[in-house]
Amino acid sequence: MITTEEIKRRLWDGANELRGSMDASRYKDYMLGLMFYKFLSDKTLATYKSISGSSAETEAALIANYQKDYETAGAGLTNLLQSNMGYYVLPEFLYQQWLLDISSGEFEVSKVTDSLNHFERTIAVQEGADDFKGLFSGSTLDLSNTALGSSLNERNRNIKALILLFADLNMVALQKGDVLGDSYEYLIGKFAMESGAKAGEFYTPKQVSEVMAQIVSRSKNITSIYDPTVGSGSLLLNVKKHLSRSDQRDLEYYGQEKNTATYNLTRMNLLLHGVKPDKMTIRNGDTLSKDWPEDPSKPNQGILFDAVVMNPPYSAKNWNREELKVSDPRFETAGVLPPDSKGDYAFLLHGLYHLGTEGTMAIVLPHGVLFRGGTEGDIRERLLNKNYIDTVIGLPSNLFTNTGIPVCIIILKKNRPLSAPVLLIDASKEFIKVGKQNELQEKDIAKITDTYVSRETISGYSYLASREDIIENEYNLNLPRYVETMESEIPQDVEAHLHGGVPQANLEELMNLNRVAKESLAQYIKPLRPGYITVTGTKEEVLDSIKNSSLILEQQADLTQKVTTYLGKWWNSLIELSDIDEIRAVREKMLVEIKELLADYPQVDAYLGYQIISDCWFNHLQKDTELIAASKFHELGRKREARMVSRGSGKNKRQEQDGWTGVLVPNELIKEYLYQEENNQITELNRILQEIESSLAELVEAAKVEDSQEEASLLEALNEKQDAFQLVKVKALIKEEVKSSDSYELLHQVQSHLTKKASTTKKIRAAETELNDTIEQRILTLTDEEIDQLIKAKWFNGVEEKMTQLLVTPLNDEIDILFSLEERYNETLEDLDKQLLEMESSLNSLLEELEVL
Fold this sequence. Notes:
By secondary structure, this protein is α/β, with parallel strands linked by helices. Among the domains are: 1-204, N6 adenine-specific DNA methyltransferase, N-terminal domain (Ferritin), CATH 1.20.1260.30; 551-636 and 791-805, no CATH class; 674-782. Helices cover 55% and strands 10% of the residues. The protein has 34 helices and 16 strands. The strands form four sheets. A nine-stranded mixed β-sheet has the order 3-2-1-4-5-7-6-8-11, sandwiched between helices. Helix 1 (4-19) packs antiparallel against helix 7 (152-165) and helix 28 packs antiparallel against helix 31 (742-778). The protein starts with a helix and ends with a helix. Belongs to the N(4)/N(6)-methyltransferase family.
């Protein structure tokens, strides 16, 4: 089975290799469009096989049967396919037919164009097939575009290569577990990163989308969801992933997109994720120019949805080109129209208008909407007075590819009591830098959503603002007004500088030390005077005392045992997985449980432990569980596959097998755990080789020192680059030297090193070849116990140590703070005065001496 990660890697590598100089934002339409057509063709064949009862064992036989039945039944067969899928692809226009043409040397781009055009014509006359109409329109997939190749032959070659990229992927089989959909989403995201500013029209960063989806999906009884600026559809699909299977089956998807190519991308994306055509209503249009969708049973009234999500264009200028009035029902709530120069609140009000009474809305907007005045201030005041704003989440800057500005997520609800406070979360400092972009980690997303659920005030992170707070701030929601920024620098204490000592107040602010290490720390704290202390002992002594205290040792033993039990429990669940659709639920439960487990230790940041387990999933578990779900664990552990490497270049570039590698068990782990002695012998040989090479390098450098004995004896033995000795030259020079002479000894030394280097290198290669061959054979005969040992090491190696380290890291950090304060106030003003007097005295003495001279 091919895993999601392997598909992602292969397709993206292929995209980079094939697109050449074409802009990523344009190339995506071709690649994703043809990938989708492969899905339509595979789905047609799979449906035909099901309804016809065909027993064809090969795809070629199935296509032949389909062709034969179509010639006999004609419209009867296509009508049956249409009623089952909402579309069909005729035998002669299947993606598989392109592949046959390629293999026979008869491929032409025109055949692809004919196939896409026929699909468009077929769909155009079908009732109820709107979701497929225009998907391959010329404006989206123009196969005559010279960017695909300056000549017809070049375009033929490039499009053929792109078609072959999907040749062996069974798109229908890959729909299970959303493998296909996730791969498609991954490609959209990668193209967005490559497209830079052009990505804003079709992509919301996955981590931002995830925050919105996790919050919105907590609403009860979600049966409909709407995205007025739908882009690629990722927001809709992310919400879907967090709903139960029964809710997913009944979910109605609505979306609107202005850009036609992106509108097509949306429909493809939803269909690939298994959304049925009758459950999706996507429209190509301008959201703000005219209200949509309207309720067919209530003229001039908009449909209300259980969930609304959107990431609109930021501060869109000239949005009101239709000269809309405040009487437009979407803007009646605000009482005024948003300014024509900034469309942020126009989008917000549109979404809010379509939000059901019990629903939840999440929208991404620039921070300016929180504090700008004028009509925007009036709108914000009206929304707050009606208490529609539930939560504001400030995010880091530089999350998006199309803008570096910080943005916020605003959560709105219509059924909030007027007395309910507004939750303000400042998550702007919770991120890591990946390349040029900032990214939220899994732990950051979990912290945001947990705070949203608990609705608690956390110092420096969140605040529950009452109506009185908001009025006092004149309806300004700028986050720094409510959430105090945590000062990284501890304020200076004047008295401590004057008289010495660490302020007692600073000591009391070291919360973790006071919570779990107060007694251990107390023996190193000495009072100086009221309100001030000094620290005795070294930093290492204090830290060792705390680490070895009974409480910390008990915590470490207790946590180690709990983590071991936790990993053992989830080990059994993971190796027994039999359904790929269960993986997401297992992952989420595993992450929640580690967070709950760590909550028992007051000094530990449970979200750091959450990230440790999340990293386990990212590094290995996601891929391996997909494999396990399609096979039996121990049988999979004894499987191997060819290790393919690229050789040659240009026209001679080719893939060749270079041994075998374990499908589940890495060869390196087998070497490390089951062949330690052999591995150690190779390590020792490499150490010897390194020593020889180091000695030779020293002699090379010595030979280049002018007027040295080494130069006189060895310089002629160097190669042209003068960076290595040549054995042939060394042997020739030895013959010319008198035995026991200095030159003879130096040359003999070089010869000995070169000979030993050659023999050691030969031994290493022979030993490595023998060991690799042994390991490749050993994969096939691994015992169940060995597989367990090796996969536990692969998945969870070091997890217990990392978790227990979380107990002492915060204590170590606070000890550093304490000793930095001790150093800060170590020298008093009196000490400095004395030093100044001593320096002044020394200077005077020097001046007197100068006068005498």
